[in-house]
Amino acid sequence: MAKIDYNCLYFGLELTEAMNNYFKYVIGMVTAFASHGDSWCSAGMHRSIWKCYQALAVRNGTYLGLLDRSSAAAAMRRVLKIFVLIVATSVVVQYKALHTLLPGTRWLYFLMYNIYPVTLSYMRHVFHLLHITLMCANLRQLHVKLEHLRRTVDDSLKVENITLNPRKHEAAVLTTLDRLEDCRSIYTELWHANEGINELFGFSQAFNVACSFVQIAFDLYWVRAMWISGDPDLDLQMLLSVPTPVVVGFLMHTTRKYHLTVESVKQAVLEMPYMHDERMVQLCGYFLGQMQRFRFRLTARNIFDFDNTLLPKFVFVIVTYMIIFIEINR
Hints:
Belongs to the insect chemoreceptor superfamily. Gustatory receptor (GR) family. Keywords: Cell membrane, Membrane, Receptor, Transducer, Transmembrane, Transmembrane helix. There is one protein chain. The protein is mostly helical. 83% of the residues lie in helices and 0% in strands. It has eleven helices and no strands. The chain has helices at residues 6-10, 15-41, 43-60, 69-100, 106-156, 159-163, 166-229, 234-240, 243-270, 278-293, 310-329. α4 packs antiparallel against α5 (106-156), α7 runs antiparallel to α8 and α7 (166-229) runs parallel beside α11 (310-329).
């Protein structure tokens, strides 16, 4: 189809404009194939993540990992709301475009060609967002367990227990050690599930996130070009630029909540009372050392991390891309 309508797609465009459209389509298709290939090759890893949650649920008498039915349903509702909002935004934009562009025009063909790769890219982002949300919810429950343990220790931590009732104090220490060790074991299992998420989405999301920011750069290039030329379709182009930042914004907001939850778990261990016992000091130190060695993070095969440093990097890429194409056009 692209070969048949090649002249319709690119005839009459300047070199930089044709390159811009061509790169956007090619990068989108490469990302789509990368997502399909990564999904196929990582099917076993996907199953292992759910098995890890299932094992935790069986051990703790919960529904999904550390989540009971209501907590799991709440997490799924949050993802569903985001999904519906993304779909609604995309449908409104596409409906407006299809009813504005004239049949047989270059831009209508180009819009139709890009529906598949762009839709697949958005769905991959939402699927990644689902896993991040579930992991964040499980980490939040781990934080709740640690906070409950800390409050229990604070209530029972009295000097009289050591001087007047050492046996009661020893029993309290042993119980606390067992519960803290259980939390440490849960941390280990969740870390393995988190690494599975990185393995499942790492390669394809490296392409996908880069593709999303490149698409934003492509759209901004056309917004600038239409604004300079006084094109009457500038409003439509600005509208077409909306969905991708919305999807990326939801993804980055979810990763920010994830990192805050990880920090809260670490803080809960730091604030754990030692109960005047050397064993508590050693176990808390070992737990903190484990957190330092096996950190929770979201990474795309170590190409980049999904954290606060990601946006500045890609803003730099977008600005650099636009400067290069503007200079070539001159």
